[in-house]
Amino acid sequence: MSKRRISRQQRWRIEKIQSERSERARRRAADTEAALSEGELGDEQTGIVVSHFGQQLDVEGQTGKQQRCHVRSNIDGLVTGDQVIWRPGKPTGVVVAREPRRSLLSRPDNFNRLKPVAANIDRIVIVIAPEPLAHANLIDRYLVAAEHSDITPVLLLNKSDLIDPEGNASLLNMVQRYRDIGYDVLTASCASEGGLSDLKALLDGHISAFVGQSGVGKSSLVNALLPGTDSRVGALSEATAKGRHTTTTARLYHFPGGGSLIDSPGIREFALWNLEPEQVLQGFKEFRPFIGLCRFRDCQHQQEPGCALREAVEGGDITAQRFASYQQIIASISGD
Ligand SMILES: Nc1nc2c(ncn2[C@@H]2O[C@H](COP(=O)(O)OP(=O)(O)OP(=O)(O)O)[C@@H](O)[C@H]2O)c(=O)[nH]1
Ligand SMILES: [Mg+2]
Ligand SMILES: [Zn+2]
């Protein structure tokens, strides 16, 4: 990492900000503990985190009512979808415990820390579109993360109203490659309302998170699937035809008949350096039958003779695109 030179004055300001921040955190923790010990709060009950704002959360109790809550200082990393024990209060409640998680989708943030995105989900819906144009490598990164966390990934090609079979031939070929591997791929359009009933059927009864680039239409899909929901939607930038990061925090919504949907903020990149190369390899599910068959036990699947993966590419069992994408991810996590 490049070392930035910072002046003494800048260093002093950074230290001041940090000490103010830890003082605020200390005061918050003391207030929370005082509220707990002075019995100002209602009885403990179970709930689910529906959204997260800096130091506070919105928790939904069993009656379906939501309340803004502080979090007891010994619990960290709560995230949308977490099941919690909490106590209602005026004006804010307190989360006192987190239940064990069935699954956790995380990604590293810009400061090299692993950040949880959503808990207890069983599906991730990777939303792609012709505009902003889908990138196979980003899809592959999501697929690897999903395979690694035992969450079923589904690909959803949204904005089908904008697809022109000739102009978008390479996008349609890419989508077909994922179908051939065995992934579920659905097509939908919020504009023409096409494909929404198939999507609804797939999501019914599950806890799913919509993920993907900014501007592909995740929030529009949530609004279309759940009438009465008003998740904020933002037009693409006219200059770049990219999304403008309209959604800033993940939020959970319920289907009336059971199941939930989490709308999440769009991302540009999805680093995977929290995984070992072997885990990345296993995350490419069509590679699995060939893993362990290379001539050399420590084969790096580069130029070695007798590499079973390269042979599978030559034999047509693995596409050149997915193999290149795998190599790109390995190069990006090896640190140079
Ligand atoms: N033509 C067309 N436009 C769509 C469709 N779905 C969404 N859009 C438009 O795409 C733009 C972005 O939609 P959003 O729902 O805000 O996208 P998002 O994925 O939630 O974006 P972030 O919150 O920034 O991650 C808006 O202008 C929507 O009206 C669709 O099916 N067809
Ligand atoms: Mg959004
Ligand atoms: Zn090999």
What would your notes on this structure say?
By secondary structure, the protein is an alpha/beta fold. 30% of the residues lie in helices and 21% in strands. It folds into 3 domains: 59 residues, Nucleic acid-binding proteins (OB fold (Dihydrolipoamide Acetyltransferase, E2P)); 160 residues, 3-Layer(aba) Sandwich (Rossmann fold); 57 residues, Ribonucleotide Reductase Protein R1, domain 1 (Orthogonal Bundle). The radius of gyration is 23 Å and the shape is globular. The strands form 3 sheets. The chain has a 6-stranded mixed β-sheet with strand order 10-9-8-11-13-12, sandwiched between helices.
Q: Could you say which small molecules are bound to this protein? A: guanosine-5'-triphosphate, magnesium ion, zinc ion
Rg, nearest Å = 23 Å
CATH class of the largest domain: Alpha Beta
| Terminal-residue CA separation | 11 Å
The biggest beta sheet reads: 6 strands, mixed
Q: Any low-confidence stretches, pLDDT <50, length ≥5?
A: none
Q: How many strand units? A: 13
* Element-by-element helix/strand order: HEEEEEEEEHEHEHEHEEHHH
Order of strands across the biggest sheet?
A: 10-9-8-11-13-12
